[in-house]
């Protein structure tokens, strides 16, 4: 377990993931009843973009750095506003020195009745994450294997919920674990909203993953991708995707506005592309 998200916090892939995550949480808030967000691979929750690691690897400059300064098209701006509001609230002096990882972003968006369960396997990261939410009764941090918890923690007792699965993709077999994890969790909690992150790097692996998803028999599955440059050989991360199971009905139309705007903004000049398709309908 050598992966450190600090090198990548706020990059183009985080922007897509966190914008989609924000849209999903905002939608869940439209009903008064409580919900729970389960973040299976949570990281440390807060990243110092002015620190040594981010200085060595300033990926955030081509991610949140671009978005913060951008004039987005009229229809896209209100859709990213809740995400940017969280970032602005964490950086009252302007700019973005502090970047929220998924658990902190979610926490900032929750209402008093909502809950967050965050799982992190790396002992030091789990400790940092626990420290971040110490005394917060709405958040439970578990130093646990997210893949096991994905099965064990669903359905949440609130019966309404969103499960974010964001593995590091450093070990072989992560695509298979995603498929297996989704199948098991969906079997127990079919009405949950699921958001799965995956890298656009190994074209064959993505192709096989998408085919396997289509064959799973799970209804209502949306695929959203943004690539910032063409695929290369040898393969390098050139974009990222999210699979959203049981998306709120407005998400497709929101993503039709957001994805092209993000591809234009985050992509190399003239090279940004997006994809939005249903892998399975009703
Ligand atoms: N979701 C975070 C965000 O958006 O800010 C980033 C998470 S990062 C991509 C993946 C995290 O998963 C790392 O912090 C890593 O230590 C952790 N991890 C790796 N294997 C895990 C496992 N089996 N269960 C839980 N966490 C794991």
Quick take:
With 282 residues, the protein is an alpha/beta fold.
Task: Report what the structure shows.
The longest helix has 17 residues, at 12-28. The protein has helices at 12-28, 52-56, 64-68, 77-90, 102-109, 123-132, 146-152, 174-188, 203-214, 251-266, and strands at residues 36-39, 46-48, 98-100, 115-119, 139-142, 161-165, 193-200, 221-227, 239-245, 273-280. It has a single domain (5-280), classed as Vaccinia Virus protein VP39 (Rossmann fold), CATH 3.40.50. 39% of the residues lie in helices and 19% in strands. It has 282 residues and is of the alpha/beta class. It has an eight-stranded mixed sheet with strand order 5-4-1-6-7-9-8-10, with helices on both faces. It is built from ten helices and ten strands. Helix 8 links the parallel strand 6 and strand 7. The protein binds S-adenosylmethionine (SAM).
Helices and strands, with pairings:
Layout: H1 12-28, E1 36-39, E2 46-48, H2 52-56, H3 64-68, H4 77-90, E3 98-100, H5 102-109, E4 115-119, H6 123-132, E5 139-142, H7 146-152, E6 161-165, H8 174-188, E7 193-200, H9 203-214, E8 221-227, E9 239-245, H10 251-266, E10 273-280
Parallel strand pairs: 1-4, 1-6, 4-5, 6-7
Antiparallel strand pairs: 2-3, 7-9, 8-9, 8-10
Helix pairs in contact: 1-4, 1-5, 1-10, 7-8
The protein binds S-adenosylmethionine.
Radius of gyration using CA atoms only: 17 Å
Give the mean pLDDT.
96
Strand order of the largest sheet: 5-4-1-6-7-9-8-10
Largest sheet, strands/sense/barrel = 8 strands, mixed
- Assembly type of the chains comes to single chain
Bound small molecules, deduplicated: S-adenosylmethionine
Task: Tell me the name of the CATH class.
Answer: Alpha Beta
Strands, count: 10
| CATH T-level topology | Rossmann fold
Q: N-to-C SSE series?
A: HEEHHHEHEHEHEHEHEEHE
Shape: globular
Structural class: alpha/beta
Strand content: 15-25%
What percentage of residues falls in helices of 4 or more residues?
25-40%
